[in-house]
Design a protein that fits this description.
9 helices, two-stranded antiparallel sheet, Rossmann fold, alpha/beta, seven-stranded mixed sheet
């Protein structure tokens, strides 16, 4: 079972051969209803995992921005040394100096997995600008479901320099219940080498550095301490929780992605209407 949290506030791509540069560019879609949605991909993921949601929301009139998190698209030797603060800065930049900076209408943020945590931080810092948040399968702890041995090795990796040298290779089901998508991912992941990023733009990184799991743990710890003081959106009166029963972790691309997209847009639209925005043509 997966979970979608939506909260209101107050007011897959074919890559080029060789080194993959397509993941390095965020993509954006211009809408016509005056609202902007920032979609944030997960850790070691790709903006591609948000493409279905982006297209759905854009057809409903929303402008959509999918930023690339810091160093995603770089060799894994570079990515593994990135801090969670750098990932957050990638999202923050979209709001303060990117395409969303000039938006005059409501701005919404939505993220998958770690991206959901970054979306909450964005909403907390920019209370007067972010009108709603959707947290898609938020990662508040790592259960090691697809890497059972990790629960014994991670404490060692977190607390020693070994975290800079350990990696976990993603194993089936890759957070995806859809057999068709899972098979495509498996064809790449099963033969992928540590430093090969040829198809990273399409499927994300097949190896997960323990150093990044440590950064995720630090982000969760920071957010957990901060949550009681976050007035919006955590303590908002307008909020809802959606339970999904036919999806695994990557709910933006799995069986119930239509439900995710529809309920997210419906929630954002209620906020938009309450804010007095113009109706969608």
């Amino acid at each position: 079972m997966s979970v979608v949290f939506s909260l209101g506030l107050k007011n897959f791509i074919r890559p080029a051969s060789g080194r993959d540069s397509s993941i390095k560019s965020e993509f954006s879609l211009k809408g016509n209803n005056g609202c902007t949605v920032i979609l944030i991909h997960g850790l070691t993921g790709t903006p591609n995992e948000m493409k279905f949601l982006a297209g759905f929301l854009n057809r409903k009139g929303y402008s959509v921005i999918c930023p690339r998190l810091a160093n995603h698209g770089e060799p894994i030797s570079v990515l593994k040394n990135t801090k969670w603060q750098d990932f957050y800065e990638s999202v923050r930049d979209v709001l303060i100096k990117g395409d969303a900076a000039n938006s005059s209408g409501p701005i919404f943020a939505a993220g998958l997995s770690m991206g959901a945590l970054l979306a909450l931080l964005l909403a907390d810092e920019f209370k007067d600008r972010v009108s709603g948040v959707s947290c898609l399968a938020p990662t508040l702890f790592y259960d090691g479901w697809n890497t059972p041995h990790s629960k014994y090795l991670l404490p060692l990796g977190y607390n020693t320099p070994l975290r800079h040298f350990f990696y976990f290779k993603e194993e089936p089901p890759y957070g995806i219940k859809s057999e068709a998508i899972r098979q495509r991912v498996h064809r790449y992941y099963s033969n992928a080498r540590l430093n090969d990023i040829t198809n990273v733009a399409q499927y994300g990184y097949p190896y997960f550095p323990v150093s990044l799991l440590h950064q995720l743990q630090l982000l969760v710890k920071y957010l957990s301490i901060k949550l009681p003081s976050i007035e919006f959106p955590v303590k908002s009166e307008m909020k809802e929780m959606i339970l999904l029963y036919d999806s695994y972790h990557v709910i933006t691309a799995d069986h119930e992605r239509d439900i995710v997209a529809d309920r997210m847009e419906s929630f954002f639209n209620r906020i938009r209407v309450n804010a007095g925005s113009k109706t969608v043509p």
